[in-house]
Amino acid sequence: MPARILIVDDHEVVRMGIRMVLKWDFPQAVFVEAQDGLDALRKVLEQSPDVAILDVTMPGMNGFETAAQMRLVAPSVKIIFYSVHDIPTAARVSGGDAFVSKSSSPRELTATVDRMLHA
């Protein structure tokens, strides 16, 4: 069964970029996108992703709030916070399984997703 990866960011170009980077290493994966926290929670219930990549700063429900709600409805989803803010400790305390800075190399993101899929 192919991996299911949810990409949550309020900027469409960021979602597209993440999908393009990950598609190279995970060609069989099913990619699902959400533009905000509420949309992400709907997609989690509908699509049952294995991994969710969450932006921290989003309008409405931020990434931390989204992660907390996601843990309630789908505790097995691996959550990767993906942000310009350097907050790895806060990300883990908030229910995340990993943190990747948006200034990191694409390889770091794909390695983190791979690690989460095999955790």
Molecular structure report:
- This protein is an alpha/beta fold.
- Helix content is 45%, strand content 20%.
- It has helices spanning 12-25, 37-47, 63-73, 88-93, 106-117; strands at 4-8, 30-34, 51-54, 78-83, 98-101.
- Helix 1 packs across helix 5.
- The two termini are 16 Å apart.
- The relative contact order is 0.19.
- The mean pLDDT is 92.
Secondary structure elements and pairings:
Elements: E1 4-8, H1 12-25, E2 30-34, H2 37-47, E3 51-54, H3 63-73, E4 78-83, H4 88-93, E5 98-101, H5 106-117
Parallel strand pairs: 1-2, 1-3, 3-4, 4-5
Helix pairs in contact: 1-5, 2-3
Would you kindly provide a brief summary of this structure?
This protein is α/β, with parallel strands linked by helices. The protein has helices at 12-25, 37-47, 63-73, 88-93, 106-117; strands spanning 4-8, 30-34, 51-54, 78-83, 98-101.
Number of helices: 5
Q: Classify the beta-strand content into a percent band.
A: 15-25%
Query: What is the averaged pLDDT score?
Result: 92
Helix/strand/pairing class, anyone?
alpha/beta
What is the CA-CA span between the terminal residues? 16 Å
**Secondary structure: number of strands:** 5
Secondary-structure element series:
EHEHEHEHEH
* Low-pLDDT sequence parts: none
Helix content: 40-55%
Q: Main sheet: which strands, in order across? A: 2-1-3-4-5
Q: Outline, from the CA principal axes?
A: globular
Please give the radius of gyration in angstroms.
Answer: 12 Å
Largest β sheet strand count, sense and barrel closure: 5 strands, parallel
